[in-house]
Design a protein that fits this description.
Order of helices and strands: HHHHHHH
Largest sheet: none
Number of helices: 7
Strand content: under 5%
CATH class of the largest domain: Mainly Alpha
Radius of gyration: 15 Å
CATH superfamily of the largest domain: AhpD-like
Shape: globular
Helix content: over 70%
Structural class: mainly alpha
CATH architecture of the largest domain: Up-down Bundle
CATH topology of the largest domain: AhpD-like
Number of domains: 2
Distance between the termini: 45 Å
């Protein structure tokens, strides 16, 4: 697959996982300065890694949530909680992933992650809690 094909495959995957609104916003915010970075993440993260056959998107979402909690990337975490829901994880499965992070990433990291996830879940799927 050449770079152009990988970019196209990456955009299809990126849109499927993150949604058109998010991707359209990222594209609209792209500047001459950030264009190469946007192209790189589209080709590499979305066109190569997220499309590999070794893990399905649900599993990739679980791994991604955990990594983002571990590194404290809470804004990215919010985006990927939404992506996890798009990839078929339930609220309870997101909760279980975050509980697992409390043991391996630390309680403060999981506490912050639960706050972000609760906000996202309330926005995406309003319920009683």
């Amino acid at each position: 697959m050449n770079d152009e094909e990988r970019h196209a495959e990456g955009m299809r995957t990126r849109r499927a996982v993150l949604g058109d609104a998010h991707v359209d916003g990222a594209v609209a915010r792209t500047t001459e300065f950030t264009a190469d970075f946007q192209d790189m993440i589209t080709r590499y993260a979305w066109g190569e890694i997220w499309t590999r056959p070794g893990l399905d998107r649900r599993a990739r979402s679980c791994v991604t949530l955990t990594a983002l909690v571990a590194r404290g990337h809470l804004e990215e975490l919010a985006m990927h909680v939404r992506a996890a829901l798009r990839n078929g994880l339930t609220r309870d499965e997101v909760k279980e992933v975050l509980l697992q992070t409390a043991v391996y990433c630390g309680v403060p990291a999981a506490n912050a992650a639960f706050a972000v996830a609760q906000r996202v879940l309330d926005e995406e799927e309003p319920s009683t809690g």
